[in-house]
């Protein structure tokens, strides 16, 4: 029996828009090719979030389980006048917590991260960090063999 992909959102409704929460389990429309991957909204799993003045500068992590080996891609599209970063954390049973395995920390809010996952089912987290500025953002995830 094949593994079923699961995207579990663990975030405050203050950080996610109602539209993102409503579509959290079903994937967004799939991208049609490499050019379509330029926008996070074109990724198969995409969610919107927001940072406002006075809010925490880190999002509550977006969790998901990885059922297959291969290369995964995550993206972040944020406001042009802000600096948001994207981090990938992996569950480490021996350490009893999550460890940072990849990050994209450009000077703007357009971030892309790829990483390889082993064949076993592992839990990953995506975390958005607002280094400076405020505004809405979109986070997207692409599993192996998804274009």
UniProtKB/TrEMBL annotation:
Residues 1-30 form the signal peptide. It comes from the Bacteria. It comes from Kineosporia mesophila. This is Uncharacterized protein. Keywords: Signal.
